[in-house]
Recover the amino acids of this structure.
């Protein structure tokens, strides 16, 4: 591996220290109302072997880039592998709150983006979490007001939103700006382009009001903006080798991984099976994800939003470790991260065992795996 990678500097360290946001616990319907004694009696996996934990708690975002979690839960594909072990899910609106929940042992496994994964790993000096699998690639776009911006060069002097200081899209946009030869102060967002950190929930309203001229954002926010009249100017996947980069991976508490490897393996089997079902049945999977979103948020996405958004996301078992390493380098270059060694952030042995059993190719950790 090249130079050591990423610890989070002031901004991201502060984000990681945010108090735990209110967690919306979702009733899964998979035995969540069962009595404790009944759950214990039923604690047998699908293959007839007893699992080592009565319950596994999984966290994710009500977001299309977390489609594996949405669909796997909605279709019962995780529970099928867990058997009598009870699945409990929690939803989060931001990476720092999910990392805090993992630190507080409120969840055991999480679907989450690369930047909070790096943050959580480095803040605990490599002692708390491991990345154990992939989930999604892509699904990030630069969309702009076509009346103000017609070419990429027109971004100079304009106000462009990203979701959060130092988050995955913010780092990507800052890196893109740097490669254009433009200057922006990473902390303030001021410079040749004004980088306006705006929560995805309010970005569409900010666009409609004219307070921003565009946004570098994940789906479905990008497609929501297009539905409001914005134009897609760049798909971030075109900037990466093979048009692939990690947007969502699977993390686990090191303690839970050590104490309950059989449960982790069951969740990974559920993830691999879910990903295979999504890729084999894209239209059914899209409908399933939308049904899950309606259950979680009270609203489903309209066709003009979910259709283009869904097409831009690639569902994958591969965590695309080399792209996480590159994203870490970009954050160091932007001045948002300090250098540190990320070796040990991945443990892909359980996933590769599941993939091998399913007759699928194994995945690599880019030299960042545990020994």
């Amino acid at each position: 591996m090249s130079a050591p990678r990423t610890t989070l500097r002031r901004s991201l360290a502060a984000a990681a220290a945010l108090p735990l946001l209110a967690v919306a616990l979702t009733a899964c319907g998979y035995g969540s109302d069962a009595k404790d004694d009944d759950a214990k009696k039923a604690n047998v996996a699908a293959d007839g072997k007893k699992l080592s934990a009565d319950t596994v708690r999984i966290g994710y975002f009500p977001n299309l880039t977390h489609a594996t979690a949405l669909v796997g839960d909605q279709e019962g594909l995780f529970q099928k592998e867990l058997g009598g072990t009870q699945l409990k899910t929690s939803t989060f609106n931001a990476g720092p709150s999910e990392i805090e929940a993992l630190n507080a042992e409120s969840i055991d496994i999480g679907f989450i983006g690369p930047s909070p994964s790096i943050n959580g790993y480095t803040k605990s000096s490599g002692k708390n979490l491991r990345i154990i699998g992939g989930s999604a690639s892509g699904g990030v776009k630069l969309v702009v007001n076509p009346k103000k911006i017609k070419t990429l060069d027109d971004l100079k002097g304009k106000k462009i939103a990203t979701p959060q200081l130092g988050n995955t899209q913010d780092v990507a946009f800052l890196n893109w700006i740097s490669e254009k030869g433009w200057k922006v102060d990473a902390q303030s967002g001021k410079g040749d382009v004004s980088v306006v950190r705006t929560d995805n929930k309010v970005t569409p309203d900010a666009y409609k009001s004219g307070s921003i001229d565009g946004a570098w954002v994940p789906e479905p926010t990008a497609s929501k903006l297009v539905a409001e009249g914005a134009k897609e100017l760049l798909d971030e996947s075109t900037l990466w080798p093979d048009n692939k980069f990690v947007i969502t991976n699977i993390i686990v508490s090191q303690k839970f991984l050590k104490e309950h490897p059989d449960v982790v393996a069951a969740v990974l089997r559920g993830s691999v099976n879910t990903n295979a079902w999504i890729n084999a049945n894209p239209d059914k999977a899209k409908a399933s994800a939308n049904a899950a979103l309606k259950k979680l948020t009270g609203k489903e996405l309209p066709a003009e939003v979910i259709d283009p958004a869904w097409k831009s996301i690639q569902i994958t078992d591969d965590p695309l470790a080399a792209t996480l390493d590159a994203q870490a380098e970009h954050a160091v270059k932007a001045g948002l991260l300090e250098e540190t060694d990320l070796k040990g952030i991945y443990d892909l042995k359980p996933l590769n065992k599941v993939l091998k059993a399913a007759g699928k190719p194994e995945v690599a950790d880019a030299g960042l795996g545990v020994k």
